[in-house]
Amino acid sequence: MTNIAIPANFNGARPIIDPNNAAMLLIDHQSGLFQTINDMPMPTLRAHAAALAKMATLAKLPVITTASVPQGPNGPMLPEIHANAPHAKYVARKGEINAWDNPDFVAAVKATGKKQLIIAGTITSVCMAFPSIAAVQDGYQVFAVVDASGTYSKMAQEITLARIMQAGVVPMDTAAVASELQRTWNRADAAEWVDIYTKIFPEYKLLIESYGKAQEVLQKHEILDSARS
Questions:
Q1: Would you list the domain boundaries of the chain?
Q2: How far apart are CA 187 and CA 15, in angstroms?
Q3: Second label for 68, Cα 20 to 30 Å away, from 1, 14, 90, 177?
């Protein structure tokens, strides 16, 4: 018989993000650590991390950030994270590798009053996985954003994915997080969500440009090149 990993702490409810009950934790997205990433292109990871911060702002989610010895070789946090989420609360750690081992960090999470946590962290197998597993044990519903984390090998990513699922964490990708937070295109800020998707997968911008041109042709009654004499 195959054992199927069951999302923890949902008690039979659908394991989906509730924007009204979620906080976002962005952990150790630092320039030094980014130099160790080999499971995805570094610019892609950087864009995904920045996109998470932006969508948290649009969805009005609390954001907590932290860094691992940022004055040392792990390097400073990516500046676009706080630029995209100026309301984010930064928590300084005293050397703890697992952010959940820092009482101030856990206190900041509890202070949000949210029971769902969207977590991304570099490195995936440590900075994302350790607090994700710990938060599940403390009763939180946890969504781990795998393609906004990053680690030193594809094998490490796959092993970590298996480990967090065994613990009851729900793995997700950045675009899926955006869609669950956005929920509908029938909203006043839809254009800003479009911009987020173009940061997650730049190819989407080509679709937008093609659609925009098609609408322009219709509105201006433009003569097609194929119809010119």
A1: 19-191
A2: 24
A3: 177
Q: Cα 186 vs. chain centroid, distance in angstroms?
A: 23
Q: Write out pLDDT tens, residues 64-120.
A: 999 999 999 999 999 999 999 999 999 999 999 999 999 999 999 999 999 999 999
Q: Is the peptide bond before 164 cis (omega within 30 degrees of 0)?
A: no
Which uninterrupted H or E stretch holds 62? none
Could you tell me the pTM of the whole model? 0.92
CA atoms within 13 A on the CB side of 58: 23
CA R_g for the chain: 20
Contact predicate 102/89, CB 8 Å: no
Give the pair of three-digit tokens for residue 104.
């101030």
Residues whose CB falls within 8 Å of the CB of residue 161, separated by 6 or more in sequence, listed in order:
146, 171
Report CA-CA distances (Å) from 182 to 32, 114, 170, 207.
32, 18, 19, 19
Rounded Cα–Cα distance for residues 92 and 90 (Å): 7
- DSSP letter assigned to residue 140: -
Domain 19-191: give its CATH code: 3.40.50.850
- Which residues are designated catalytic? 127
